[in-house]
Amino acid sequence: MKSLISPVWVRPLKLLTGAVLALNVSAAASGEVLAQSKSQVIKQQIQTLRQSTQRWIQVKLSEQKLVAWEGNKPVYAIVVSTGKKSTPTRTGVFKIQSKHKSTRMRGSDYDVPNVPHTMYYSGGYAIHGAYWHRRFGTPVSHGCVNLAPNHAKWLFKWASIGTPVVVHK
Fold it and tell me: N or C terminus of the chain with fewer C-beta within 10 Å?
């Protein structure tokens, strides 16, 4: 998967050393502005989703596991393959943006036709079936979340556009 960062922005970002922060800015009653780290935002979103009855998807990179939730109840859990070290899966809170029963996926070093049950959640990042490997549990993708085709089919039917996707370490 190609980098989604524009080269124009890379130079100023190189000045930052240490932890990268995703800012969640909110005005407090006193007028102060609060900034939270990306991991804090993710934890907070998980807590909020667990207190709802909403359907949502959690991807745990360290466990290579995907869990489909309905509020605080896990309804489906499977082993997946996420991005390898050179092409990591982005962490964050996203939503399913589009669904394709079958699509072609291309990058600089791959061209895969008929990728089944693809759900894009952030630019070119997607959850989809992978018929070309059986190395689930091992990071092998170009940044996407790979599932066995039968599991991808189940998730595709269960999730809708707008379903939250939470990806974390």
Answer: C
